[in-house]
Amino acid sequence: MIVPAIPCDGVRLRVLRPEDLDDLLACYNDPDMRRFTTVLPVPFTREHADEYIHDLAPRMFAAGGGLYAVADPVTDRLLGGVGIDRLQPGRAQAEIGYWTGTWARRRGVATAAVRALAGHAFDTGLARLELLTHRENAASQRVALAAGFRPEGVRRAALPGHDDARDDALAYARLADDPPGPVERLLPDLPGGELTDGVVTLRPLAGSDLAFYAELHSQEDVVATTVPPVPPSPEEMRRRCAWSASRWLAGDRADLVIVDTATGTPTGEIGLYYQEPGTGQAMIGYSMLAAWRGRGYPTRAAQLLSLWAFAETGIARLIAGALPTNVGSQRVLEKAGFKREAYLRSRLPGAGGRRSDDVQFALLAEDLLTEGPRLDG
């Protein structure tokens, strides 16, 4: 079966060849790839690689899909792979997947390949392509969004995990008549990966922050101001750290660590929760380790996050709440420029089945334009 190559911007899609065997072997034994591709044989041997080249890939093409090598257009070296599988002719629908070798990452290789193969699939009669990825695979989610695939929801336990476990899948899809180009994100990346005023630095929460996060959320007063006021389980804390990048990409929330710039020490957290994209309203919340309180860090963090939100997103209004007894948090918000707007009775679930009142504050974009930022702690 003759399979024509598919030219595209920066890469070339072609059939797998025997000379790709060593690179294919290296790719499929890469720990990062194996973490999310649990169906691969363990270990992945030269015999397996040879079978993929001479048997699996031809069978996928014969079934109406395909497994393409993503090659360098100049050297023809294997950079990764992209394929279409699970074809449903009656629905004109299929599933697309991809991977990239360690030597070719962060160069837009996967995005270019997915765009090219998706375009080819639509030109040859498909109407819908689905893309499934693990929650913790933020790199794959970035490719999906950049290639024009829109998030559609979560498929519970849809993917085989390690040790007979099942993992949720984030579902993305692109239709033949979707507009070209990447999907617009509600919450873009931070410029340079962080925000700083020279005293504090805000950076995204990551899986490696679990020990710090567990320490912070074991403090009694932090738990008491959590909604609901129940300490998270170890698995919940692991997920909050590991899934932070995914939630940011989805536009749901941006979780950040407040770092002491001079020492690089994590001191607290601040989060932005995009509740109402339709109205341009989001909420912020924060907490600090006891040893770092009294230095004005949460005020600085709130100001930095507010400036970024108003300048880089569609957010026009930020809200925040505090318990009536939490005078310290109310002072933080007032110093950050928020204005008290309401006292909401029994708004929040409290301890022991009781309800708690909530003091509501708000900050508008025009407030900052009028008063300017006040980064004096």
- What Rg is obtained from the alpha carbons, in whole angstroms? 24 Å
Give me the strand/helix succession. EEHHHEEEHEHEEEEHHHHEEEHEHEEH
- So how many helices? 12
Distance between the termini: 69 Å
- Residues in β-strands, percent: 25-35%
State the fourth-level CATH superfamily of the largest domain.
Gcn5-related N-acetyltransferase (GNAT)
Count of domains: 2
How many strand units? 16
**Largest sheet descriptor:** 8 strands, mixed
**CATH level 1 name of the largest domain:** Alpha Beta
Strand order of the largest sheet: 1-2-3-4-5-6-8-7
Helix coverage percent: 25-40%
**Shape-level CATH architecture of the largest domain:** 3-Layer(aba) Sandwich
Quote the average pLDDT: 94
Return the structural class: alpha+beta
CATH topology descriptor of the largest domain: Aminopeptidase
The 3D shape can be described as: elongated
Low-pLDDT segments? none
Molecular structure report:
- This protein has helices at residues 21-28, 31-36, 46-62, 109-123, 138-146, 210-216, 220-224, 234-242, 244-250, 297-312, 327-335, 365-371; strands at 6-7, 12-14, 66-71, 78-88, 93-100, 128-134, 150-160, 166-175, 195-196, 200-204, 253-260, 265-276, 281-288, 317-322, 339-349, 355-364.
- The protein has 377 residues and is of the alpha+beta class.
- The chain has two domains: 6-175, Gcn5-related N-acetyltransferase (GNAT) (Aminopeptidase); 191-371, Gcn5-related N-acetyltransferase (GNAT) (Aminopeptidase).
- The protein has an eight-stranded mixed beta sheet with strand order 1-2-3-4-5-6-8-7, sandwiched between helices. An eight-stranded mixed beta sheet has the order 9-10-11-12-13-14-16-15, with helices on both faces.
- α1 packs across α3.
- The longest helix has 17 residues, at 46-62.
- The model has no long low-confidence stretch (mean pLDDT 94).
